[in-house]
Structures are given as structure tokens and as C-alpha cells.
């Protein structure tokens, strides 16, 4: 498979959009088995099992999630996304978090996903500790 600019962009847009449907299988289907997910202020998570676990924890904490793309740049196998993530917690609190994500794509799957954001801002708004 060729990871064209268009294919890489579609994969990432579909992944980001899949959070609104809240289906863990769909969300995780974008990732390679040996992928790395790195919320850059904290330790990277290696492998799909760990990624599934953290994504499930997010789904368990948020009743709604919308990842709003502000800007997107792509090259074959590389997608950069500036976005604002909006979460509604089950207790009614809301989170509005500016984020920049870097996605590496190989063979039609995300192999590395790094998110850059203000950790203290996220933890203050969400009440979660990453």
C-alpha cells in the first residue's frame, strides 16, 4: 500500500472523527499493532493493548468528545494537525484543550501518534491525572 498524502490525511481525519461515535474498535482500528501513542508531557504508550487501555479510560471519563481540526498539513506518511479537543465529562464538566498532533503513517495504519498540549490545563479542566 502506498501511503499517499491523500490516504494519510483520510486515515487521520477518520480517526479524529471516530471519537464522536465512541466505538473503541473503530478508534483503535486506525493503529498498527506496534504503534506508539505519546501524550508528550507523559511517558509514551507502546503497543495496541496499551493504546486500547488509555483510549478506553478516556471513553469511560467523557460522555462526549469532539476533536475540531483548525489546520492540517500532510506529506506521504506524515500528518500534522492543529486542533481543539472538546470533551464533556460524565459529571458535567467540560474540557476545551488546544492540541497539536503529529501522526506517522505506514502501510495504511498510524504507527506513531504524538499529541502536544498543556498537561496542567488538561488535568485542571478534566480532574484526570495522566
TrEMBL record:
Keywords: Hydrolase. Residues 10-122 form the Limonene-1,2-epoxide hydrolase domain. It comes from the Bacteria. Pfam families: LEH. GO terms for molecular function: hydrolase activity. This is Limonene-1,2-epoxide hydrolase. It comes from Mycobacterium decipiens.
Amino acid at each position: 500500500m502506498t501511503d499517499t498524502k491523500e490516504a494519510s490525511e483520510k486515515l487521520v481525519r477518520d480517526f479524529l472523527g471516530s471519537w464522536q461515535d465512541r466505538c473503541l474498535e473503530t478508534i483503535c482500528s486506525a493503529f498498527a499493532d506496534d504503534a506508539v501513542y505519546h501524550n508528550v508531557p507523559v511517558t509514551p504508550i507502546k503497543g495496541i493493548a496499551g493504546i486500547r487501555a488509555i483510549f478506553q479510560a478516556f471513553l469511560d471519563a467523557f460522555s462526549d468528545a469532539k476533536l475540531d481540526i483548525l489546520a492540517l498539513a500532510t506529506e506521504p506518511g506524515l500528518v500534522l494537525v492543529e486542533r481543539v479537543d472538546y470533551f464533556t465529562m460524565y459529571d458535567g464538566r467540560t474540557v476545551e484543550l488546544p492540541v497539536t498532533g503529529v501522526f506517522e503513517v505506514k502501510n495504511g495504519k498510524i504507527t506513531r501518534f504524538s499529541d502536544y498540549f498543556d498537561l496542567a490545563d488538561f488535568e485542571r479542566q478534566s480532574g484526570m491525572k495522566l
